[in-house]
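Incident review: delayed structure delivery

Summary: a single-chain prediction request sat in the queue longer than the usual turnaround. Root cause was a stuck worker, restarted by the on-call engineer. No data loss occurred. The affected request and its eventual output are reproduced below so the record is complete for anyone auditing the incident later.

Affected input:
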Amino acid sequence: MVAAQLLGCFAPLAQSNEPKTDIRTEAAKQTEVVQTAGIAAKLQGIKEKPSLKVEQISSFTSPSLLKGELSLGTFVDFKQPLKATLTIRNPSANAVALRYHSGMTADLVLTTVQGKPLWAWSDDMMFTQALRDTQLAAGEELIVTFAIPAKALAGIPTEGANLTAQFAGKAMQSELPAMAPIVFLLTLE
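Output delivered after worker restart:
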């Protein structure tokens, strides 16, 4: 009889629509990334507070319609992502007609100096699969921002890694590439 009365009084708690996030799990993930980065740095002989040396090594001196510039934020440590900004500028007196084969405007790719892929910004993204045509007016700039995750930076080998900015737009009325890739050599010291 007591059991029946208890069952009769039972009511489920109202469910919240907010996603449940276990703070301990999120903190554990962050700690794991930091610990992995620290271990990787120690194995590579990098000092406790590493610095990131950046050297532009673009070997792409071919002519292109647009000029690109890649700038990197300040590297703090393996706990924080590194911000990167790609600025694409039309230096000509005429608009440049561009075609994109997806929703991606540009990509940022980290490879070993031998060319083995380590990380790409687009790997964790999904883009529309539709053609889109646009124009970049004379003197106009297009700015694309990226964040390089800490775990990608921690994976940079001792000989360094190439960071390549690639513009996804194709010139519609010219045989020239829209923008030549920009390549930096990143080394941890």
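Verification: The first strand starts at residue 52 and ends at 56.
Action items: add queue-age alerting; document worker restart procedure.
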